[in-house]
Amino acid sequence: MDSWYKKCMPKIKDVQPHIKEIVSSLKNAEGVKSMHIWGSYSKNIDKPNTRIKDIDILARTSFHSGDLLAIDNKIVKSICSNSYLENQGYDPSAIKFSKQFLTFAKYNVDCWAISEDRKLVHWGPICVNKKESEDINKEAERYASKNTGTEKKKINKSAEHVRKNWYKHYCSYLDQCFEGMPTGWYKTEDIKVREILSQTIKI
User: Which of 96, 150, 181, 188 is most exposed, with minimal Cβ within 10 Å?
Assistant: First the structure.
C-alpha cells in the first residue's frame, strides 16, 4: 500500500498522525525557534475529511532574511566547507537549515520561514503579496477544472486518478506562471508576523 504522502491530495486525517514525525528532524536544528503548520491544513483542522493540495510548514528562525535570500538551489547542492561559505558571504548554518528543510519535499511540503528580522520567506518562486497569490491560485484551480471537466468542489470525493489529473493541471498552470525563475528563498511583502503566527498550529 502506498504511503500517505504518495497519495494525491490526501485528507487532513491521513496527514495528521504524521506531522510531528515530519518536522522531528528540524525542530531542534540550529537556528530554529519553533515549527508551525498553517495554510489549508490549519484552516480546516476541524474538517478531517478535507483534502489538501500540499502541507504548509513554517519554521520560525534566528536567521536574518538576507542570509536566507542569498541561498539558492545551486549553493544548497554544492559541497563546500564552512570557511569557504563564510568567505563567499554565506551563513553556513542558514544553508544547513535550508538543506534539512528541503528533505521535506518528499512529503509535498511547502517550506516557509520567518526570519529574525520578521520577514516571511518561501522556498521557491511565489507571488510577492497575498492578493496576487490568491488570484493566481484561483486561476490555477479554474484552469484545472476547465481542462479536466472536474470542479474543485467535487475533488474531495473523486477517485485517485481524477484527483491526480486535476492536480497535474493545477501545478502546470503554476509552473507556467513562475517559469524561468531560479529556485531559492523568496520574500513576501505586506505581511504581519503576529497575524501569520495566529493562523498557525505550533507543532
Answer: 181
